[in-house]
Amino acid sequence: MRLRGVGRRYGLRGPWVLRDVDLDLPRGALLRVEGANGSGKSTLLRLLAGIDTPTAGRITGRPRTAYVPERFPAALPFTAAGYLTHLGRVHGLGRAAAARGAEEWLERFGAGRHARTSLSELSKGTSQKVAVAQALLADPELLVLDEAWTGLDRDSRTLLDDAVTGRVAAGGTVVFVDHDPRRLAASLRGAADAVHRVAGGRLTTERAVDAAGASTGAGPGGPADAGSRGLAEADPRDPRVLAEFAGPRVLIEAQGPAGAPLPEGLPGAPALVPADSPVPPGTVRLTVVAAHSDALLRALLTARPAWHVHAVRPVDPPPASSAGSPSPTTESPPA
């Protein structure tokens, strides 16, 4: 698939979210999209998935595509199995094959007992399993993942890792956004063949692949940079990984149900900070890079059971420790 001069804005006079995007999606490639919150990453993925249409430019060669959105529409009037069967039919499977695939993927994700549960009654984690399963059950040629790992338990993240590498090995193309490069470095065993960054409505390529799927080493780091070694070999001290955690940090104070652990797979690799005074039971204090704070807040507020956020405030000065492991810091007054 190719994008040439693609732009997207909402409304006749709305600001351009993306401008002049040129992008090739070769077969058998794993493509990572990076960028700050609100930079246009999700808009780009929606264009790739065919959910949105470009305001300018052209997209050609669209393959059979499946998409995991950043927010799963859990209010739909389906059971988990009914939704997967319906989406399997949309993806081109026959009724029997779709129903069989729905059952198999729910079992693989450890959610088989929820097959007859309404989507609106599923926990956040189980809803995410259904969202991922619908994209995998028909072996798409293009798989588009917008923070698909967020909210999954460890076993389910590993299953998705395996599905991603399997799709690429079978000649499919996978495009993904994820806010936690350290988690991907530790778990996703396939190497990202290309890394693209969205900033200021423009797409830049840090490393590309040619038509045959080989890395061209584009970008300042060339073939020796962290990306070309692959996420599985990325060093948490590498500048490419550190850059994901650079910048001002914020402190989030949240309280969960008594005895409830923090949800797994929180975005931004937040660090626990000891309380400097007594806090109510179940209260934690987390610091995270400001660019990841929105995603972290969303994960806490949409967890089931949900966490109550007491405070969000800047941390000053920014910690000087390694990525994802800040030292305790002095808080500035609330902004």
From TrEMBL:
InterPro entries named in the record: AAA+_ATPase, ABC_transporter-like_ATP-bd, ABC_Transporter_VariousFunc, P-loop_NTPase
One Pfam family of this chain: ABC_tran
Compositional bias segments (type: Low complexity): 321-335
Keyword Hydrolase: no
UniProtKB keywords: ATP-binding, Nucleotide-binding, Transport
Region (Disordered): 212-234, 312-335
Domain of life the protein comes from: Bacteria
Domain ABC transporter: from-to ranges: 1-225
Gene Ontology molecular function terms on file: ATP binding; ATP hydrolysis activity
Name this protein carries in UniProt: ABC transporter
